[in-house]
Amino acid sequence: MTHIQKNITNFGELGLAPKLLSVLEANGFVHPTPIQQQAIPLALEGKDVVGIAQTGTGKTLAFGLPMIQSISRNKGQGLVLVPTRELAIQVEETLQKIGRAIGLQTVVLIGGAPMYMQTKALRHSPHIIIATPGRLMDHMEQKTVNLQNIKVVVLDEADRMYDIGFAPQVKQILRAVPTTRQSMLFSATMPTAIASIATHSMRNPVRVEVAPVGTTAKLIDQAIYMVGKELRLQLLDFLLEKEPGTVLVFSRTKHGAKKIASSIRNMNHTAMEIHSDRSLAQRRAALSGFKSGAHRVLVATDIAARGIDVTGISLVINFDLPNNCEDYVHRIGRTGRAGASGRAVSFATPDERGVLRDIERLIKKPLPILALPILPPKRAQSNSAHLMGHEPRVYNQANNRPRWGGGQRSGGNGQRTNKFSNPVHRSRSRY
Ligand code: ADP
Ligand code: MG
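A: This is the predicted complex of the input protein with adenosine-5'-diphosphate.
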């Protein structure tokens, strides 16, 4: 694989059709982002491409534009595989923004929505299918989808697609697609082990990497609070009072997300939650209400960490650290998108120092630790802090180092699961 460096600043220089250029202009897209500059010409040549670029830097159009152009010129169909329903819907919206003017037909195949509507749309041989692997497999099993005409396949958030749970389905799907296809993988992160599996089915792929894997967007200000679990809700309360803008809070589990959202509502902020226990309709309502500003805070599991593009999220709070370092990059990447600035703060317990070091190694920069502020008193209805069953830990705020009363582990839900140790095949998700 080769690294390509070019310096083009205009969409007109990338080999795109005049029709697409005028749609881009009408949508206010003038200058291609670095990943678009590099990936689009290669993709238009029909090359297999692995595209690595920071969150929020326009990867959707980096594969979307060449895919639309190639489908309209060479006929055939395109397939975009994504890890979540929300991302599928969003990718379709982006592709339609460009494709509508040239009559692009798309279908979204995701769980939680009726099969028959999707089947009906598939009968019209849409130009591009955007799918989550599980629902696409359902259609393959019921023979309601024919993949013989697929000419271009994209795996968006590719490393997640090969993550545990998806890998067997992705492999099966790729086996059902003609081998003569063009393949493209995009992500901001790509662990080496996954990259070697993922590129196995590709034909001499060109790797375009505008920033090293794991690099976070430049304009995100990141910091850590070392805080015992029993003080997290109070710290959250403090941060939400201080922060006037839109806030996205991440929780490692769906159970946690539910509890945090309810605590935030008790703090008199508008909040909704998004996780896999909610119906598709509830998930859509939570996300669109957050986008429209109807509720200022969204509490999410890692289901919302990948790909979701909401303009103007000013603060991301990791109420707990994610299960793997890559997810940290994706979580905080929900802010600081398309050249905007943003802030991300993460709560960590002192026994998570090792995890923090792993994250720092991935993002290749140190994460500053902030002194704990004077916290507001615990709200009466906040219902989880007292469950921790021990006294609040005391921090020496002068040098930001926690003083521990004997290294006991915080109890209960701090268990970290190894994502490679627990194979799940289409089982219920933790997220
Ligand atoms: P990524 O997949 O890299 O995280 P997205 O494709 O979701 O990023 O794009 C992030 C945001 O950047 C979107 O709101 C999109 O409209 C915007 N965007 C994409 N390309 C451009 C461009 N060339 N100029 C300006 N904004 C862009
Ligand atoms: Mg994306």
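The longest strand covers residues 150-156. The chain has two domains: 11-209, 220-370.
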